[in-house]
Fold this sequence. Notes:
The protein is α/β, with parallel strands linked by helices. Helix content is 45%, strand content 17%. It contains 11 helices and 12 strands. Helix 2 crosses helix 11 and helix 6 runs parallel beside helix 7. It is elongated and about 60 Å long. The site of beta-D-glucopyranose (BGC) has 14 residues, from helix 2.
Amino acid sequence: xxxxxxxxxxxxxxxxxxxxxxxxxxxxxxxxxxxxxxxxxxxxxxxxxxxxxxxxxxxxxxxxxxxxxxxxxxxxxxxxxxxxxxxxxxxxxxxxxxxxxxxxxxxxxxxxxxxxxxxxxxxxxxxxxxxxxxxxxxxxxxxxxxxxxxxxxxxxxxxxxxxxxxxxxxxxxxxxxxxxxxxxxxxxxxxxxxxxxxxxxxxxxxxxxxxxxxxxxxxxxxxxxxxxxxxxxxxxxxxxxxxxxxxxxxxxxxxxxxxxxxxxxxxxxxxxxxxxxxxxxxxxxxxxxxxxxxxxxxxxxxxxxxxxxxxxxxxxxxxxxxxxxxxxxxxxxxx
Length: 335
Ligand code: BGC
C-alpha cells in the first residue's frame, strides 16, 4: 500500500512539475497550451561564415525535427542590424531565442533586451563573461573551451618529427593568422597554441600576427604576404580557423612550399575541405569544432530553459569538447 501511495505521489509531483513548466513555457504567443511547439528565433552573426553555415544548418534541422517552427536571420556582421532582429523576434512573440552575437562587446545590451522581454535565450559561439550572463537566469551559453583548441593546435606541432623546428635552428618560427580579435576564440587560440609549445620547453619566434577575420581570402592574402616577406624562415602557420588555413594553403602552394615537408599548417573547425587536406597531407592537422554537437546541445539547453530550468553565475556555460584531428584519425570525421 505504502508503495502505491508513494507511486501516486511521485506521479502527482511529475504532473505538477509539467503543469508548472506549461505556465513558464508560454514565453511567446507562438506556444499554445495543447503541446504545439512555437517559433524559435535564431540570430546568426553572418551567413557568410563557413563554420557558422554548418552550425546554422544543423540547428535548423534539429529544431524542425523536433517540431518547432524556425526563423533564422543573417546579421550581416552588423550588431545594429542584429539588435533590430532580436527586437523583431521579441515583438513577434517567439518562444525562445538562439543568438550568435555579432560583437562579444554587445553581450550586455543583448542580455538586458532578452531579460526585459523574459525570453529564454541560448547564446552560442561568442562567449560573454560569467558576470555578464549572471544578469539573467534564463540565459545559457553553449560553445567550446577555446583555450583547449589552441592547446591542441600546439600539440599537433609538437607531435611532428622535429616539434616544428624544421630548419633545426633551435626555435620554431611561426606566423599567426588570427580570427576577429574581439572574439574570445581568436584570443585564446592565439595564446594557447603558442603556450603549448613553450610549456613543452620549445623556443618560439613570432614573425608576424595578422587579423584575418576568419575569412579564407584574408588567410590567402596574409600567408602570401608573409611568405614573400619571411620566406623559408616560416616553419609553422597557425590559423585560428580552417577557412583561413585553406586560404593559407593556396598561398603555400603558390610559393612552391610543401606542407609537412618544409612548413607546417594547422587550423580549427574540421571543415570538410580541411579534412580532405589533412587526409592528403596538405594540412598538418586541425581541431574538430563540433558544429553538430554544439547545435544539439544548444537545442537541448533551450528546451531545459523552456521547461523552467534557471541558471546562476558560474554554471551558465556549457562546453562541447574539441577533438584533435590528424592523418591517423581523420577518417573518423569524414562523411
Ligand atoms: C570558428 C570560426 C568562425 C567563428 C565565428 C569560431 O569558433 O572556429 O570558423 O568563423 O567561430 O564566430
